[in-house]
Amino acid sequence: MLSAVLKSLSVYEAGEQPQDRDFIKLNTNENPYPPSKKVDRVLRKINYQKLNLYPDPDSNRLTEELARYHKVAKENIFVGNGSDEVLAFCFYSFFKQDEPLLFPNITYSFYKTYASFFDIDYKTISLDKKFNIDFSKFLQQKSGGIIFANPNAPTGIYENIARIKKLLQSYQEKVVVIDEAYIDFGGESCISLLGQYPNLVIVRTFSKARSLAGIRVGYVMASSFLINALNRVKNSFNSYPIGTIASKIAICSLRDDEYFNKTIKKIIKNRLYLCEKLKELNFKILPSFTNFVFVTCKDFSAQVLYKKLKEKKVLVRYFADDNIDNFLRITVGTKSQIKRLIENLRNILSNP
Ligand SMILES: *Cc1c(COP(=O)(O)O)cnc(C)c1O
Question: Which of 1, 18, 40, 341 has its CA 20 to 30 A from that of 130?
Fold first, then answer.
């Protein structure tokens, strides 16, 4: 009954989304703070009678707002139903090549899933000892494209622009996709490099820093040549990826920079607090430029900690993969969430 391709699918395992509200969710890097209050006004003003109509297939309003916000041309923007969807279109549009796609061995695990889904040959490149991306290794072999997240996930580690620029200078034939899902939490975006490198693709999301995981909006910034390719693929798959309501909410968020900046400052402050407390409990913490920390505890198995925290209704993310199976990824929550996490950790560690 099923298509043969289903046998070879390696399905992405998303973090748990329990319907039980007692849980403290520090497992999927959602923003613990709500989006801008102005979103409430937008929702109240929506005319339900017009929802009989399809949305604008080209999302012109949102695209224009994003262009204005990032000071690029409208032709350099492509929007989609979450960055996972725009990533899928990127894989399909750019990475089906004769040579393998390259990405770090530790990175967003969806890249592997998409490679397998689209039957794209790939090779992973090991991070160095400090969990940084070793760009020189990417240049040592023939490849059909490169993708990495900056800051990387789940490590949280940020690569500075100078290093990325060096990569781009030596790599101009194939596409380089940089997934900047977490860039707003302290890193510097590669947007400034777009003009110089027509093979550079930047992917962004409204799900993390903008507190809007629920509306499913992501976007791409790249040369108009690459954006055209994405539009052709989109129009062969789903002509209306952004719903009317999602588009209005996304625009509203872009227009409230003051709230956006305030929220980010709070998260960064909470991140410092969380790191301080985890250090007191003897955790080793990788330097984070994101809204999560990647940590390991010398004297305790990460998997056991994950399970014990879950019993206490605190969810964090554990990955069973090689190399990182003794780490936990913990989302930076509100101060009170962090306190509950730390309290539970302290109890677990002192009564093993
Ligand atoms: C969360 C995340 C995404 C997915 O974002 P959506 O827009 O919610 O689909 C993409 N890339 C990375 C690295 C992420 O952490």
Answer: 341
